[in-house]
Specification:
Largest sheet: 3 strands, parallel
Bound molecules: tryptophan
Number of strands: 5
Order of helices and strands: EHEHHEHHHHEHEHHHHHH
CATH superfamily of the largest domain: HUPs
Helix content: 55-70%
Distance between the termini: 24 Å
CATH class of the largest domain: Alpha Beta
CATH architecture of the largest domain: 3-Layer(aba) Sandwich
CATH topology of the largest domain: Rossmann fold
């Protein structure tokens, strides 16, 4: 099975991204042929600063590599290194009614808020469909918020196929069953828009400080505590082994454990998980040529497939053979 997903280089990842998206996608490496790319064309709809674009692109690549993406098994590449995707965006935009774009969530939200959006944002779902269809992707691991976009990609594939013949593979969204809602510092879902995140790559001291700021109730050391309604414990469960989790739950239910102690335990399990990865991350960012070598190789492999699929689409639509495309 071929699984493809895009990661927008727009922000530093937090633990919610790690547990909800990055880890499930990395786990898929054993079961699927992965194509994971950095969606810089998509990011350009909002990131309009060259230094930031370069920085975020390298950070995303370093993040995935440090956390265990194996570039031998999984093709990691940069969207804009395969410019054929913009050509396919045009072909797909010609079989899509404008109404479908007007009904897309992101566009509707912008309309409702009276925000003036750029054409790139309006066309976002078509570019995303091109991403998916250009690699004959079968499964698209995404969060719930992206399901509509994958369904639109499927619709575009069907519309194109019904006019021109069986060119595109019909993709399916693959929604990771949420491990759990990952609570942020204040107990609400961890999300950048709530300002309650714990970033993955904080240095140890800052990580500890953030963990210490997690909201708890006012029970003191000598009070018995309820693990299942505690934000600290909910996060602990996601990083600790089952045995560690059971042991801490027991300490919650007896006097003698202060929330400060529980937070220290939480800090320790997060640090144990992320410490070694943080070293790899920092090594990569200090040696961007290592990152770029991986991306160059990934982009070459991805482009070979893309050129072939685009060739099928062009041919089906009746475009004369392009010398560039027949060379591979
Ligand atoms: N829109 C996706 C997001 O915001 C990123 C993305 C771009 C993507 N192209 C894709 C995801 C193709 C899956 C497949 O998260």
């Amino acid at each position: 099975m071929r699984a493809l997903t895009g990661i927008k280089p727009t922000a530093t990842p937090h633990l919610g991204n790690l547990l909800g998206a990055i880890q499930p996608a990395l786990a898929l490496q054993d079961k699927a042929e992965g194509f994971y790319f950095i969606a810089d064309y998509h990011a350009l709809t909002t990131v309009q600063s060259a230094p930031l674009m370069r920085q975020y692109t390298r950070e995303v690549a370093a993040t995935w590599l440090a956390l265990g993406l194996d570039p031998q098994r999984t093709c990691l590449f940069v969207q804009s290194d395969v410019p054929e995707v913009t050509e396919l965006t045009w072909l797909l935009s010609c079989v899509l009614g404008a109404g479908a774009l007007e009904r897309a969530h992101a566009y509707k939200a912008a309309q409702q808020d009276g925000r003036d959006i750029n054409v790139g944002t309006f066309l976002y779902p078509v570019l995303m469909a091109a991403d998916i269809l250009l690699y004959d992707s079968e499964a698209v691991p995404v969060g719930r918020d992206q399901k509509q976009h994958v369904e639109m990609a499927r619709d575009m594939a069907q519309a194109f196929n019904s006019r021109f013949g069986e060119v595109f593979v019909l993709p399916e969204p693959m929604i990771a069953e949420a491990v759990a809602t990952i609570p942020g510092l204040d107990g609400r879902k961890m999300s950048k828009s709530y300002g309650n995140t714990i970033e993955v790559w904080l240095p140890p001291k800052q990580l500890r400080k953030k963990v210490m700021s997690i909201l708890t109730d006012s029970r003191g050391v000598d009070d018995v505590k309820e693990p299942d309604s505690c934000n600290v414990f909910s996060l602990y469960k996601l990083f600790a082994t089952p045995a560690q989790t059971a042991a801490l739950a027991q300490r919650y239910r007896a006097p003698g454990l202060g929330y400060g102690h529980a937070k220290e335990e939480l800090y320790q399990v997060i640090e144990a998980r992320l410490g070694p990865a943080r070293d790899r991350y920092e090594h990569l960012l200090a040696n961007p040529e290592e990152i770029e070598a991986v991306l160059a190789d990934g982009s070459r492999r991805a482009r070979a497939i893309a050129v072939n699929v685009l060739g099928r689409a062009r041919d089906a639509a009746g475009f004369l053979p392009a010398p560039r495309l027949s060379s591979t």
